[in-house]
Structures
1.
Amino acid sequence: MNGEFEFIAGIRKMFPVPQGMLGIGDDCAVIPQEDGMETLVSTDMLVEGSHFLLEDIGPRQLGWKSAAANFSDIAAMGGSPVGSFLALALPSGLPQGWTDAFLTGFKEISDKYGFALLGGDTTASKDRLCICVTVLGRAVRGRSLKRSGARPGDLVCMTGTAGDSAAGLYAILHSIPREEEVPYLTGRHYLPTPRIKEGMMLASTAGIHSMMDISDGIGSDLRHIMEESGTGMEIDLNSMPLSKELKQFCRKNGLDPFDFAADGGEDYELLFTADPSAEAAIQVQHSVIGKVTDTGELVWKGTDKDFKGFRHF
Ligand code: ADP
Ligand code: MG
C-alpha cells in the first residue's frame, strides 16, 4: 500500500456503493441497465507537471493520449465505447494554435475508434493545464470483466508488449538520439492504442476470469487484481513479452528491459487471467506471463528484484 491507494481505500469505506452497482476499485464503475446491458463509466485527470510536461509532448499527441488513456479503462472491462466528456482548465499563455492541435488529436482517436464527444467543461487555470476526461461504455449485463474474478490456477496473460512506453519516455527525458528503434518507442508513449477490440473479444470468451489495463506498470497493476480477487501471483520475468525495439534500445544504452517492462507505466495493454482450459480458445494475441496462486503474495521468478510499478505519491 502507499499514499495514493490508501487514500482511495479511505474514500471507498466512506461512500458505500448502491446495491447492484460496482463502484470504486475497478477500471470503470458498472451501472446495470434494464435493457440487458450495463453502463461503464470512468474518469481520469492529466495534470501538467505530474502526467506530462508541455515542452515534452505536443498538443496533438496530448489530445490523442488523453482520450486513449481513458478509453483504455473501457477496454479493460471488455466494453464498447459510447462517448466522452472533456473538461479543460487552460492557463493563459498557451502557444498559438495549441488548443486547436489538442482537439485535432482528440478528434483523430475519437473518429478512429468511434468515440462521441458529448460534453465537458472549460475554465481558466491560474497555473497549470489540467485535462479531465470522463468516458462511457457499454457491455452485456454481467459480462464486463472485473479485477476481482481471478482464481488460483488461472494463467496470467497480457496483450502486446510491455515497457515500450516507459522506454519511449526515457528516451525523451534523456534526449537519446533518434536511432531507428526510438520513434517506435516514443510513438507507443505519445500515441497509445486502447485495446478496445481485444477487450470486447476477451469479454465474450468463456473462461476469462479477470481483466484490467496496464496503466501504472505491471508491478503495480498485478497487485490490484490480487487485492480485489484475494489471490497471489507468480510471474516469470523471462516470459514477459518484449518488443525487438525495446531490446535493441536497452542493449545500446546499457539498460535492463525488464525494468521498463515490469515497472514502466502507460503501456495500455490488457492484463487478464484465464482458466488454463480456456487459453486455446483465446483469439486475441497474448502472452502467458505467470499464474494465479492462493498465497496472497506476488512472487517474481527469474529475478532477485521486486517491481512495484509507478506511484503518483
Ligand atoms: P485507473 O488507473 O484504472 O484509472 P485508478 O488507480 O486511477 O484507476 O483508480 C482506482 C479506483 O479508485 C477507480 O475505481 C477509481 O474510480 C477510484 N478513485 C480514484 N480516485 C478517486 C476519488 N478521488 N474519489 C472516488 N473514487 C476514486
Ligand atoms: Mg485502468
2.
Amino acid sequence: MNVAEIPGDAPLICLVIGDPVAHSLSPLLHNRAYQVTGLSSRYTYTAARVRASDLGAAIHAVRTLGVRGLSVTVPHKCAIVPLLDEVSELASRIGAVNTVVNENGKLRGENTDMSGVIVPLRQRVELRGLRVALLGAGGAARAAAFGLVSEGAKLTIFNRTIESAVKLAKECQAEAAELGSNTQLNQFQVVVNATSVGMTPDSSHAPVADSVWSSGQLVFDLVYTPRETRMLRAAQAAGASVIYGEEMFLHQAAKQFEIFTGVPAPIDEMRSCFNSCRRST
Ligand code: ATR
C-alpha cells in the first residue's frame, strides 16, 4: 500500500499509550519516519498517559475517534488483550500486545517485540541449530523466547526465579536453568539479556559475572539505557561481538511503522534520530 492508496477518510492518528510515557522516544521516531517517507501530511504520532484504571475508556476513545494505531507499553501490554477484536497468533502465544492497528473499526493486536529481538540477530547469524541462552523470563523474554525457538535455535532460558523459567520453557519447548552468581555461558554461541539488570540507575550491575564471556560469542543486551551496559562492556573486552539494546527498540518500532502505514520503515533515519535524541537528553 502506498500513500495514494490510503483512503482520504482513513484515521491517521497514532499514539503510544502507557504510564509513565512522558520520556518515550516513540513520537520522535515515528514522526521522523513519516517525514522521510513523505507521510507526514497523512500521519501524526503522539503520546498519551493512560492509567491502568482508564485503559477501557482509552480503547473506547480509540474506536470513537478512529485512531489508526497504538504502541502499547507498560503497564498495558497484557491487560489490553481482552479489549481488542482480534489478536495475532504470535501475540496471543506471547500473551502480550505492544501494537494495535485499527482496520476499518476492528482493533487487531500484534506483538512486534519479537521482531525487535530476532531481526538484529538474523542480520548477523543464522540462528537455526545455534545454542542460545536467554537471560530472564518476564515480558520481554517471552517475546524473545518464542521468536528464538521459531527461528530454530536450541534455547535455554535462565532466570533468577527458576519456576518462571521452567514455565516459559515448557510453553515454547526450551530448556530451563537458574540464573545465579555462578552461571556459566561458555557453551552458548548467542546470549540475549532480557532481564532488567544493568538498566539505569543500576548500571554498575550485570546479570552474570564479567568473566563468563569469550571471543566468538554474540551477545545482545535488550537494556538500552545506558547504551553500553556493564554486560556488553565485559563481553566486548573478552572479544565477543555485541548488539546494543537500541536495536531492539528500533526494530520493534520499525515493524509498527510498517503495520500502521504499509510502507517499508526508513530504519537508518530512525536510528540516527534515536541517537541524536539520546545525545540531546
Ligand atoms: P520486562 O517486561 O522488561 O521483561 P519483567 O516482566 O518485570 O520486565 O521481567 C523482569 C525480568 O528481569 C525477570 O526475568 C526478572 O527475574 P525474576 O523473574 O526472578 O524476577 C529479571 N530480574 C529483575 N531484577 C533482577 C535481578 N536483580 N537479578 C536477576 N534477575 C532479575
3.
Amino acid sequence: MSKQVYDHKSIEAKFKELWNKIDLHKTPSSPNKKYKKYVLDMFPYPSGKAMHVGHAEGYIGTDIVSRYYRLKGFDVLHPMGWDAFGLPAENFAIKTGVHPRPNTDKSIEMFKKQLDAIGLSYDWSREVGTHTPDYYKWTQWFFLLLYKKELAYKKKASVNWCENCKTVLANEQVIDGKCERCDGEVIQKDMEQWFFRITEYADRLINDLKKVDWPESTKINQINWIGRSVGVEIDFKLNESDKIVKAFTTRVDTVYGVTYLALSPEHPLADKVATQEYKADVDKYINSTKSKTELERTSDKNKTGVLTGSYVINPFNKKKIPVWICDYVLMGYGTGAVMGVPAHDERDFEFAKKYNLDIVKVVENKKAKESDKCEDNLPYTHKDGVLINSDIFNGLTVSESLEKIADYGESNGFVKKKINYKLRDWLISRQRYWGAPIPIMYDKESNPISVDIEDLPVILPDDVEFNPTGVSPLVDHVEFHSIDKKKYPEAVKRESDTMDTFVDSSWYFFRFCDPNNEKEFASENKMKAWGPVDVYVGGAEHSVLHLMYARFFTKVLYDEGYIDFDEPFISLRHPGMILGEDSRKMSKRWGNVIDPLEVIEQMGADTLRMYEMFMGPFDQSKPWNTSTIQGVRRFLERVYKLKDIITDNENNNAESELNKLIKKVSSDIESFKFNTAVAEFMKFINFVEKEGSLSNSQLQRFLIVLSPFAPFITDELWQELCTSASKENNSIHLQKWPEYDESKIKDSKIKIGVQVNGKLRSDIELDIDTEEEKVKEAVINDQAIAKWIEDKEIKKFIYIKGKIVNIVV
Ligand code: ANZ
C-alpha cells in the first residue's frame, strides 16, 4: 500500500541510495558518435563559500537536458569537477590561516553534498580537481606543448599588478582598472613574465564564432575584446633626419588634416626628441605620467601633453608638423604614436582646443545643411562625406579614398597596410602559491631549460609559507629547487611562479573525456568520441576570460592534430541571476541569501528544481518568491495523487493533451525554455483533474516527461505503477522518452469569426464544445465586438458550431 502523503525526505533518501547502487549515472564507455551529447557546466571553484540557490540554476538546467537526452536514447557525458587552484581559495586560506589544500578539500565535500542533494545526475567516477598532481601534470604538459611551438615565451613588459593580491594579472582580469578577483587597485609595473601567444589566433578567434550557437552578446564581447582594426602605418620623418616615426591610423583619409604628431611617454623616442629649450619640460612631463594608471590616462577628460620643439614631415603634403608627447597615447597599441587630426577625432579636437593647435577640416558632409558645415560643428567624426583640402584626392568619398590614399602611399614607400588588434598576449605567470608550477628551470645565465615530459609533474610542495609578499612563495623552498643534476647539469633553479588558474580551466573539458588516463591528457579516440561539448552552461562574466582561453587551447590542439574539431563549445547558454526576495543580488551583506539545502529540507529537491526552472526565462535575472515555490510544491502534491484517478480505459481528451505536452516539453528542453515547459505541466494537471480519469499508460508517459524536472517523485510513482518483479533496475530514468503522435493532437480551443450585419468584425477563441448560450455570452462581452453592437437590439444570433457567428442588429 503506497503512502498517501508526499514525503519528499524519505523518497529522496531512498532514490539517492538506489541510483548509487545501480550506478545509474555512469557514462557509457564508447558512445555512438551520432547519438552522443556532451552536456557540461562550467566547473566551480571551491573557495570556502557554500553555493546559494542562484548557483544551482545552471546545474539544474543542464541536468534536465542530460536526463532528457538519456531518455531519448543518446549516450550522455555529464561530468563535474573542481577549478580548485587559484586566488579565491588562496585568499580564503590567508584569511582563515588554514592551508588551501585541506580548505579546498573541505569546500569540495560541501559543494558535492549540495549538488547531490539537488539530485544532479553527474557521473562522479569522472570527477577531476585541478589541484591534484594527476591533473596539473597535464596542465604542465600543455605549457610545454605551447613552449615547444613557441606559443609560450618570457618577456619583460609593463604589466598589471594587483597591490592587494600581490601578483600580476592578465588584461582580461582587470575590470575597469580593478582586479577581477578582489576589486583591488591595479597599477602598471615593468616585469619579466611568461605569456601565451594568443594574439596569433586573433583572426580565427573572431572568424570561427560563426561556427557556434552562442548568445550574440557574448560573441560581440569577444569580437570587441579582440578589437581587430584595419588601417595603415605612415612614416613621418623626424627633423629632416633619417629617423622615422611610424603612426598607426584607421583614418588615412584624414591625412591632409594632420596638425600635430603625438608620442606616448613610453615611446622609445620620447625622451630623445626634445630640443634643448623644451628638454626640462618634457622630462618633467614624462615623469608625471608614470604615476597614472592606463584607465586614468585614457578616460581623463582633461587631455594633457607637452611640446618637444621637434617636428615631423607629413609625407603626403610635405608640411612640417609639431611633435608632442601626450599620455592619452598608449605604448601598448599600434606604434605608440598618433597623427593628430583635430577636425575629425574627438580626443584630438579636445587636445587642439586646449593647446590652441591648428584645426584643418578635410571631410565634409555633403548632405549637411549649409549652416551645419561651419567650423562650429567640428569634430566631424562620421565616415559619410567627401574629401576637401586633400589635393588630388578631393571629391572622393571617405570609403573610396581609404583604399586610394593607402595605395598611393604604399607605392611611394611611406605607407604600409596594417591590421592591429586590441588583444594582448595572455600573461600567465603569477607570483602566488596556489597554482600549477611552471615546468621550467634556469641555468646560471637565467636561460630557460624545459622539464622533460617524463619528469612531470613538478610537484607543488605543501609546506610553504603562502602569505603573499610580491615574489612567489616558492622562491625560498629548498626542496622545490633541488634538481636531478645528472639529468639537468646546467639547471640551477626552477621557475618559482605558478600558472594563472585560467590555464587549468582551458582544457578540463578534454580531461572529462578520459579522466583517469595516466599516459595522455586524454586519448585521441575518447576526445573524438565525446568532443566537442554540445551544450555548455555558465556565467556570461567569462566571455573574454575562460571562454576565449579555452577556444585558444582547442585551436592549438586542433593544429597539432590531437583533435578533429576546432571549437570546444558548440552551443552555450548563460543562466540569468537569481536575486533575493528583495530583488537585490544575493549577498551576506543584505541577508537575503537562500541556501538550497534549507529549501530542500523543507520542500524537497524536486520542488526546488521545478521552481527554479519556473521562475522565468533561463537567461534572465529574476527574484526569489516564496509563495510561488509553495505553488510548485502543491503542484507536486497533486502529481502524487494522480494515481488515484487511474482508470482502465484510455481517456481520449487526456490523450490529446498528453501528446501536446510531450511535443511542447521536448522542444522547450531543447531550446532551454524550461519555464514554459513547467507551465505546460501545470496546465496538463488542471486538465486531467477536471477530466477525473487517466489510464495507467497515460500516467506513465506523463511521469517520464516530468522526470528530468522532478527525478525523485517521478521515480517513486513509477515504481508504484510498475508491475515488473525487478523494480530496482526499472528506474524511470532508464525508460524511453515517449513519442508524440501529431494526429492525436486536436486543438481543444478554436477561433470563430464573428460577423455583425454580414461584415466580419473580429474573432473569438473558445473551447471547441462550448454551448450556444455560452458562445453568445462570450461574444457580447467581447470588447472588439461590443462596439459594433453598442446598445442596439440583437435581432438575430446565428451560431454555426465551430465555424462562425452571425449577428444581425
Ligand atoms: C588619425 C585619426 C583621425 C584617427 C580620425 C581616428 C580618427 P581603433 O579603431 O581603436 O584601432 N591611435 C592609434 N594608436 C594609438 C595609441 N597607441 N594610443 C591611442 N590612440 C591611438 O583606433 C585607431 C585610432 O586610434 C587611430 O586612428 C589613431 O587615431 C588612434 F579622424 O589616426 B586615428
